[in-house]
Amino acid sequence: MKPHFWRPPVLSTERVTLRPFANEDAEPLFEYARNPNVTRFTLWDAHQTVADTNTFIRDYAVLRYMEGMPEPYAITLKPAPQPVGACGCFWAAEPHRTMELGYWIGEPFWGKGYVAEACRAVLGLAFAEFGPERMQARVIDGNAASGRVLEKLGFRYEGTLRRALLRRGRFEDVRMYSLTREEWGRDQKPEIT
Fold it and tell me: What does residue 30 show for φ and ψ, rounded to 5 degrees?
């Protein structure tokens, strides 16, 4: 457990800044988190009120930071400071050195490469600072765009877990992807600011 004030480092790419969430992010993030198109393939439901987004920041993000996880990062597009999505990595099975990557972004920013750019920076940090042997990602079947993001990052499709997830009253198939430390390459470093 990290001290209650610990936050992951800010990461920067050509078009994206990744930073820890702050309380003042609730209102701007709500504009995207309330869209059912955004949450169509997520484990969480569309936010109904700004209070839902506040709960995400206060109860989820802060607790993850206290665990020392680089998750969730606020995705901001330079030069604007407002978050338009989130991404990050957490331990799926620490004794087995397996982390999991997750991400989402507001609908106006789909198909522009921002998620892959943001995730590449987070993966660089995770492989350099946390030392996983394996990074995995789960994609609900039907979310082809998410699969393309992972393939751009070098992940390999491993197979489909049939009816592996009960979500919103329905069993879903889940596509598994992975990326090993060797595949990532040891010479890639994150840009920490």
Answer: -55, -35
> Residue 5: pLDDT band by 50, 70, 90 thresholds?
confident
- pTM to 2 decimal places: 0.93
Strands 134-140 and 98-105, bridge-based pairing: parallel
3-class secondary-structure state, position 65: helix
Extract the tokens encoding 42.
Answer: 């997520």
Give the number of other Cβ atoms within 10 Å of residue 173's Cβ. 14
> d(Cα 44, Cα 76) in Å, to the nearest integer?
21
Structure confidence at residue 119 (pLDDT): 98
Beta bridge partners of 138: 176
pLDDT tens profile 16-30: 999 999 999 999 999
Helix axis angle, 144-152 relative to 114-129, nearest 10°? 50
Report CA-CA distances (Å) from 180 to 121, 127, 132, 176.
16, 10, 8, 13
